Amino acid sequence: MGIAFRFKLIPFVATVLVVTLGIQLGNWQQRRAAQKIVLQAKLAQGNASAPMLLDGAPLAAEAVEFRRVSVTGEFVADWPLYLDNRPSDGRSGFYLLMPFKIAGSNMHVLVARGWLPRDAADRAKLPVYATPAGTVTLEGTARLDAGHVMELGKTPVLTPKAIVQNADPLQVAKDSGLTMQPFVVLQTSPAKPAGDDARMVRGWPAPSLGVEKHQGYAFQWYALSAMAVIFFVVNGFRRGKQK
Fold this sequence. Notes:
Elements: H1 9-48, E1 52-54, H2 61-64, E2 68-75, E3 81-83, E4 93-102, E5 107-117, E6 136-143, E7 162-164, H3 169-176, E8 179-187, H4 211-242
Parallel strand pairs: 1-2, 3-7, 5-8
Antiparallel strand pairs: 2-4, 2-6, 3-4, 4-5, 6-8
Helix pairs in contact: 1-4
C-alpha cells in the first residue's frame, strides 16, 4: 500500500497563518536584537574613547549617548530634583539630579550626581549632601535619561526640590526656564577642585540591552512556525493512511 497525503483546506490555511505570524514575529525579534547589538558596540566604544568635552554648543542626544563626557561649569544648587524609587543594595533612596551651567555659555546639562539614601523614619525628609560652589569640572556618561520607572498618570510640573518618579531634560528645561541639553550626564567622578559629599553612590547600573532575550524569543517563534508545518504534514499523511 502506497503512502498517501490527504489535503484539507482549513488546516492548510491555519498552518499558513501560524507560519506567517511566527516568521514575522521572529524577524521582528531578530531586528530588535540587531539594534541592541549596535547599542552594545556603541556603549563599548563610548567607554573606551577619551571623554568628550561639552562646551555649551547644542548637541543631539543620539550623537552623545553612551559617550564619556567632561564638562566645566557651576551647579545650579537651588534646582535639585529627587528621583524616587531608586534602590541600591537593598536600601531605598533617590537619584539626585541637578542642572549644571556650562562655563562660557548659557547652556545647561542635567547631571545625575549620585544616589542618596532615604530616611526610613520620615520619607518626606530630604537627604543632606554637599554641593560644590564655584567653577568645577566633572566627568560622566551621557544617557538619554537617568532611568525610567513606571508612573501612573502624567508627570507633574517640576519644581525645585521636588520628589518625582521621572524627569527628562526637556521637561526640566520647560519647567525651570533653563536652556538645557537633551541628555543627562551620569556623574562618575568627584567634581574638581571641590569634592562632593562622600555619601553619594555612583555605581550606575549598566543599561539592560537584553540581546540574548530577543534572540531567544526569535528562536521560539521560528520553532513555532516549524512545528506548525510538521504538524500539518504529519496529520495529512495520517489522514491519508486512515482513508
